Amino acid sequence: TWSSSPITAAPPARSPPLTDDKPLIQERAFALLGRILKSLLDALEEHHKLHTSPYDTWPEPLQQAFADLLRSIDAVAERLYFDSGAFTGSNAAPAPQDPAFYQQARPLLEALVPIGHAHTAHYLIDTIAHFAPIDPAGALILIGKVVTASSAYGYQYESLGEDRIIRLVEQYLAEYRPILREQPACHAALMAILDVFVRVGWPRAHQLTYRLSDIYR
């Protein structure tokens, strides 16, 4: 289909309404983006219903139309990533987490989970992980769903994905052990995430399995 290359090095032109300090403007901007995403996802679902044969058997115009649709959906994930404050550049520190942004963005992030394409998964995981300090349990469970969905499309073979997931697991082992001990859904999500990368033989993922006992210390 289209490239799963790493996230772009610089943000695109900004869309101020998503980060506007006036709640009504921000709410309307998210509502508009939500309608756009729903239209794209509906089109993708219809495409899947109409074209059930393998992708490589489709005529070139159909392949191009499908790729364009995935790019448009990915652009929504990209917008959420850059406007959330998750993008840090080469030297910058992450922006503070905005609870209002997270509340508005979460339904869109959840809607994007099933897409599964590695490029979109990169954006989703980094965006969701940015909000872990304000919602560690919810963020981990949602990231687990992203990893599960994207593993069907080979996300676990991406070196960028492996590096991001290893850092995420290390962060949770270091900072959020109580929720891993006390909330079974969080423990299950962490194990499922790690298992996806262990199964394909990433050495660092294997090494992290030996640290899981840290959860109970």
Q: Which key phrases capture this entry?
A:
mainly alpha; 9 helices; globular; 217 residues; 65% helix
Topology:
Blueprint: H1 23-50, H2 60-84, H3 99-112, H4 118-130, H5 136-151, H6 159-175, H7 177-182, H8 184-198, H9 203-209
Helix pairs in contact: 1-2, 1-3, 2-3, 2-4, 4-5, 4-6, 5-8, 6-8, 8-9
The largest sheet is:
none
Gross morphology is: globular
Q: Roughly how many Å apart are the termini?
A: 46 Å
Q: Point out poorly predicted stretches.
A: 1-9
Beta percentage is: under 5%
SSE string, helices as H and strands as E:
HHHHHHHHH
Helix-strand category:
mainly alpha
* Rg value: 18 Å
DSSP strand count: 0
Instruction: Please tell me the overall pLDDT.
Output: 88
Count of alpha and pi helical runs: 9
Helix content: 55-70%
Q: How would you portray this structure in words?
A:
- With 217 residues, this protein is mainly α.
- It contains nine helices and no strands.
- It has helices at residues 23-50, 60-84, 99-112, 118-130, 136-151, 159-175, 177-182, 184-198, 203-209.
- Residues 1-9 have low confidence and may be disordered.
What is the structure about, briefly put?
The chain is an all-alpha fold. The chain has 9 helices and no strands.
